[in-house]
Model the fold of this input.
Amino acid sequence: MGEVVPRVAPDSGPELAEKLIELRRVIDLAELSFAQTAADFAATEEYDEQGSVSAIDWIRVNCHMTSTAAADRVRVGEHLDQLQGGVFAIVQGEIGFAHLSVMARMAYAMPQAFDESALLEKARQSSPGKFHHQCRHYRHAADPQGFNQEQAELHENRHLSLSTWEDGSLLVNGVLDPVGGAALRTALEPLARRSGAHDDRNREQRQADALVELAMGGQRTQLQVTSSLETLLGLSGASAAEMELTLPISSKTVERLACDCSITRVLFQDSMVIDVGRSKRTLEGPTRRALNARDGHCRWPGCERPAKWSAAHHIVHWIRGGDTDLGNLILLCHRHHRMVHEGGWQLVRGEDGQILTIPPTVTFGSLARGPD
Done:
């Protein structure tokens, strides 16, 4: 039998902590050397001779970096003469390369007013993120005109593109200026919170749902839907419904939208238009206010989405003869409203007024999930 090699005991927690700090320091020193070399390389024409459009592009491709990271290193290298205090602080382990990157941005943005000594002490006392925040204040105090111009440029660079994929999904891509971004995040954050202990959506899914809720909330969104009578009734063999700005939608989606939206309907029977209804709110103001006061929030068990972001759901849909009165209405948030119509869940109001959720009777691939 061969020799048994004794297992080496892993480092203790304190030893691992010290090792991490030392490794980070070695990396920071290597980053300094890389930044100096990158700046020296950018001063040559070697990148052009090798067919790259810029030194940053060459570094991106050949050093396996993002354009942002490559540009950051070149900028640091180009301003090392103004950052000698910061370099010494890195060597001493007082700050990291990330701090120096922030200082280099300040030196680049305000060459005449840059004062390293005013920033270095803040860097020693702050994390890189906090230091970046402090430098924004420093920039404004030292160069308000330049700061304002930068903010104006960020606003001018805003854009939002919407494109539809072959399956009807909408691709959203864009950039907002800081104020616009803060406004959007402020509106989305409350809506993107988990709606129950068993809400298994990831954060990106919750944010996507929050954006839809934001568009559908408050003043109900006015949508134009073109449908056959058979589709509206959900009859077998009926074609899908048409809605502006997207591909055909299902009868269940039409049913959900018709619960609590302003809809402009175009209804067909036997290829002939039988009804063109103007935008008509299915739930009038006083009734909606009374519903909000009674329910207060989404009535799905365990969900507390506020009334403002909930739809008025007909327990018996008006398409099937249900009345639009308080006895036939409850508030449901966007997610749970969709679970009822498109997801096949049923709601029953008990004698005590409590809502009982009944999962779909037919499932594909997995058992029905419990209420959340």
